[in-house]
Amino acid sequence: MTSTADKVLIIGGGFSGMAAAIELRRQGIKVDLVEIDPGWRSYGAGISLGGATLRAFRRLGVLDAFMARGAATDNVDICIPTGVKVATLPTPRLAGPDVPGNGGIMRPVLAEILAEATRAAGVAVRLGCTFTRIEQDAHGVDVTFSDGSNGRYDLVIGADGLYSKVRESLFQDAPKPRYTGQGVWRAVLPRPPEVGGAMMWVGDKVKTGLNPVSHDEMYLFVTEDRKENTYVAPSEFLATLKGLLARFPAPLMQQVAAQLDSGSQIVYRPLESLLMPRPWYQGRVVLVGDTVHATTPHMAAGACIGIEDAIVLAEEVGKGGSVADALAHYQERRWERCRMVVENSGRLGEIEIAGGDKEEHGKIMRETMMSLAAPI
Ligand SMILES: Cc1cc2nc3c(=O)[nH]c(=O)nc-3n(C[C@H](O)[C@H](O)[C@H](O)COP(=O)(O)OP(=O)(O)OC[C@H]3O[C@@H](n4cnc5c(N)ncnc54)[C@H](O)[C@@H]3O)c2cc1C
Fold it and tell me: Does the predicted model carry a pTM greater than 0.90?
């Protein structure tokens, strides 16, 4: 493959940045990646992944590692708070007939798998490093780094997440992340035999769910409406989470609640969202992942669309046309799909906050899942 971008810099080593690095190396392009965190850590509990994400893993070459260390199951059971199952959401097998259509894994495990693949692909990774200046002309981008070094690149990819400094420095008019009125609680617990796959219990305004993240572990999530984005002290985590779970008399949920104690690793996160209008690039600097489309987790597709951005961008850059054409085609191929995920996920949150129409909620979930099944 020939490319007019022979040397690329990626700023940010999250799921989107690592995926871009792996895919660009596959095209024979020289890739530098800078990550601000010296420990390259990934926080949080488990992450849920749909069939489209598993399909993207196959493309990245990390599906086997995921299958060995994560969990893949079929369908999502939807229940009412008492535990009665009211629907089963089918999860198409998009990664191949042998791979179930739904998955889960611990975030740090997925980050480790992708980091190993990034290094194995020959990416020059610098940790504890970021940019201090980006200046471009018609032929390239000059970047100064926080360690005092400089580099010139054909293309710079901003993959530094929701609070992106690349976005802030190049797109001053970009919208800011918006608090959506919900927070999510998560915890990791031993997986009892009755949790064969992903399950959700939909209450009036609060929703909870379980998803296996390995053979013997699962993660619990609870989505709660909270008008203001106020600080919640860690000392309140256990009692608040148990209080929310008390609204779900389902025996399995009560068994889960009883397992939570002061030793449980509970995480709380207010939900934020951002959809940056086009353009997603300026000259030779382009944004991917949460920098341009941070979705709430209602469709468990945030990581998916960021990784897909990376695959599509590398494909376009690898075609050998001009950088301008590659970036225009990348944006054209990605906009509608990412908009759909962010806006549909946002609508699901609004329905939950209002205690609104459960039929509309189910319909949006099914339609979004089916749209995500389309090829990228
Ligand atoms: C509560 C919650 C639950 C979620 N659950 C799911 C789920 O179940 N399934 C799913 O698919 N998605 C989920 N998501 C969304 C998903 O986590 C994100 O969409 C995904 O992590 C985005 O990846 P990213 O690489 O684009 O950005 P990030 O993960 O934010 O990565 C950005 C990287 O850039 C680094 N960085 C930041 N600033 C700089 C800088 N100035 N210079 C260099 N490096 C920098 C950061 O350290 C980080 O490594 C959830 C999100 C939230 C908030």
Answer: yes
